[in-house]
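REQUEST FORM: STRUCTURE PREDICTION
Request ID: SP-0412
Submitted by: Lab K.M.
Chain count: 1
Length (residues): 195
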Amino acid sequence: MKKINKLIIFTILILLILNRTINTQKVKFKVYKKLFTKDEVKKITKCFDKNKINLDCYKVKKTQKFMLDKIKKKLNTSYLNIHHARYSHGNKNFDAKAFHRDIKPSPFSNFMHKFPNVYTFICIFDNNHKHQQGNQKLTLNAGDCLLFNSFNLHKGVNMGHFDKKSKRRILQLFNIFFDPKEEKKFYKHHSYSKH
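STATUS: Completed
RESULT:
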């Protein structure tokens, strides 16, 4: 009897995983081509060292405000709440090589059939940036930005070795909300784990 119960539980878990995997093949995302001009990309990237943000340049000199204002205008939204950001030059976001979700739901969460409206926004600062959303492969260039639901399965594709001539500079904005009610509802069912 115990073996049958374990088999039933195992089968249910496999079906849940398969259901989630199949559903992610139809991921939704939006590419904003040339959201930032060549000169704007140059201005923005002056605020970054190899793998960190120079806060004096980024915040005090209002580069962050300029970026966020432009993003809000393009997305036609008055509300934009970003939980955290990460800048990398190809070798910091080591977790991006494999398919992953920026938010990882429990198989038993309330998010089984409809994922909440929480997003990731990626700003690309170099050409020929390869990225994959579900089964769709994208090539993004300097100034392009990508918006997608944080539950989407995705990965960085050209994550190989980087020498002094190679560049893969990106700014990732995580856990973005465009609606305060949606944000409040999300945090009722979500918490952060410590690594």
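NOTES: Helices lie at 2-23, 38-45, 55-60, 63-75, 180-188.
Reviewed by: T.R.
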